[in-house]
Amino acid sequence: xxxxxxxxxxxxxxxxxxxxxxxxxxxxxxxxxxxxxxxxxxxxxxxxxxxxxxxxxxxxxxxxxxxxxxxxxxxxxxxxxxxxxxxxxxxxxxxxxxxxxxxxxxxxxxxxxxxxxxxxxxxxxxxxxxxxxxxxxxxxxxxxxxxxxxxxxxxxxxxxxxxxxxxxxxxxxxxxxxxxxxxxxxxxxxxxxxxxxxxxxxxxxxxxxxxxxxxxxxxxxxxxxxxxxxxxxxxxxxxxxxxxxxxxxxxxxxxxxxxxxxxxxxxxxxxxxxxxxxxxxxxxxxxxxxxxxxxxxxxxxxxxxxxxxxxxxxxxxxxxxxxxxxxxxxxxxxxxxxxxxxxxxxxxxxxxxxxxxxxxxxxxxxxxxxxxxxxxxxxxxxxxxxxxxxxxxxxxxxxxxxxxxxxxxxxxxxxxxxxxxxxxxxxxxxxxxxxxxxxxxxxxxxxxxxxxxxxxxxxxxxxxxxxxxxxxxxxxxxxxxxxxxxxxx
RNA sequence: GGGCCUGUAGCUCAGUUGGAAGAGCAGUGGACUUUUAAUCCAUUGGUCCAGGGUUCGAGUCCCUGCGGGCCUACCA
Length: 489
Fold this sequence. Notes:
The protein starts with a helix and ends in a 19-residue tail after the last helix. Helices cover 31% and strands 27% of the residues. The strands form four sheets. Strands 6, 10, 11, 14, 15, 16, 17, 18 and 19 form a nine-stranded mixed sheet that branches. Strands 1-2-3-5-4 form a five-stranded mixed β-barrel. The chain is elongated, with a radius of gyration of 29 Å. It is of the alpha+beta class. It has helices at 3-17, 33-41, 147-152, 154-160, 162-184, 225-234, 271-290, 313-321, 331-340, 351-362, 416-431, 442-449, 462-470; strands at 55-66, 70-77, 80-87, 105-114, 120-131, 188-189, 195-196, 208-211, 216-220, 238-246, 258-267, 294-297, 300-303, 309-312, 371-377, 386-387, 390-401, 404-411, 455-461. Helix 8 (313-321) crosses helix 10 (351-362) and helix 9 runs parallel beside helix 10. It has two domains: 3-137, CATH 2.40.50.140; 156-308 and 369-478, 2-Layer Sandwich (BirA Bifunctional Protein, domain 2), CATH 3.30.930.10. The protein binds one RNA strand of 76 nucleotides through helix 1, strand 1, strand 2, strand 3 and strand 18.
């Protein structure tokens, strides 16, 4: 069996035999680890004792140095680390320290001191077990490196790796800063359904589930868009939602089937207004949370400082792919050219999809610094307003950074008649074999028919932004519990 | 789906031509009253992923399966 766990259970029983609960319901705590450290650091350099002050500190035992008749322990709580020192002549029942293992939570009563090496320390006069752990934390020096265990058992990763604690702390602060930015600009945060009768608003396959009470299938949302625009119709001029969406696709460095998306919709704005807002939001959040707009990512140095480059879809293809779409204006000619260039694409791909494949091949990997790629082909943008003077393009941009797409925005299509035509074109693509084409959404059309004001909309993958902001090369390192295959018994 | 890699103690990892399964950390016992990857002495701990095969002999070679990672493809 697990001999090490059995030893720890025996120690818990030994504590009970002494009349103390190894899992007490309440604890004495007067100071965090960080608070004690700060108190001692504030002392004059020659002061070593603070006997007038008594503190109760708590935390997990993460270090232990037995010194005979003195024992040093390192405790870690949410604020940081604090060293405690027990000496045989100032702790009754000194032998009881043998009941403390790595990973246990204990409380220590004592006075702050400074050791001869200058280390802030609590000189303990009493200790209590707060939680007996049955397993040791990961090995203290080499830590926990196995990516699978780090992700499946993130609690071990968090115990072992400071960088992991940092990444997810940053994530939390970034999410809060984004909310603060939008709230301060008068946006209203809303919540829309995750379970939907039809999953729309993006080109992606959905997950399907079943609603027992109604005997109907439901789809997990693949975007937030269509419901948020209904709210603009209803009169909420500025709305946003930050939430989980689900796309039934593979796993990869940039892909997790559930990820966090933020979408904003602002009435009386267009895609240029939205671009200005997004620049300000992302660079401002970076500055506020991390104190910089420069980040190391996959060997590059990425600057999120404003302004970001703007280049049109067509110009970018000319620049990075030496491909002039004007010379290949239809499926036949562009398809032939891409075949000649050995760019893969599905046989069912329409013209817009071919353009997108060319962009993915030539442009996307080169867009390391944040770049707005402007004015997309209309076929792959069924919810965006067409560009005045060019019926083949729409007012849409995607934001790229680090060589991948991180966000998407358009001047929203609000002509209900044209929107119906666009849906019908999508249905034709679907019939031709494109299983990611947009579905007709009659209720959404009915909403548009009541009038949606001119609106600028925006969506961004929070996880991908976090990859840049934390310097993590894969999306799995910025998601606490990324998807994995089920472990088979 | 394709390619490459990988599975050895609780953790991190070695293991040579195929010849008695190892180290550090953790654990246990001991020394040490200012250490901080403490140090020192001793010591417990193994279904070498699983199943087959080759062989006098397999952690090592072969086959199959299972698990996992990375790259790639589809996809944001």
